[in-house]
Amino acid sequence: MESVVISGNSNNVRLLSVIAQKVGLSVKHLTKDDIEDFVMAKCIEEGATGQLIDIDDFLNSL
Questions:
Q1: Number of domains into which the chain is organized
Q2: In whole angstroms, what is the distance from residue 14 CA to residue 22 CA?
Q3: For residue 35, is it within any domain?
Q4: Given a cut of 90, is residue 1 above it in pLDDT?
């Protein structure tokens, strides 16, 4: 399964949603919380190195 995220003004997004449904695609409108969760997960994935750091070094860097 593949997904596409489309943003724009309400009228255009609504029109594209109707067209997508008419051609048999499913449509899910994302809430601000959904978008924040997605972005947070993406940031975690990109920042994850699998390496442990020394807690004292980390705290001293703050």
A1: 1
A2: 12
A3: yes
A4: no
Residues ≥6 apart with Cβ < 8 Å to 16: 6
* pTM confidence score: 0.56
Helix, strand, coil percentages for the chain (3-state, nearest 5): 60, 0, 40
Is residue 41, in this structure, part of any structural domain at all? yes
For residues 4 and 36, give the distance between their C-alpha atoms in angstroms, rounded to a whole number: 16
On whether residue 2 sits in a domain, the answer given is: no
How does pLDDT run across 5-55, given as a tens digit for each residue? 888 999 999 999 999 999 999 999 999 999 999 999 999 998 888 888 889
What domain range is 36 assigned to? 10-61
Q: Distance (Å, rounded) from C-alpha 59 to C-alpha 34?
A: 31
Look at residue 1 and tell me if it is in a domain: no
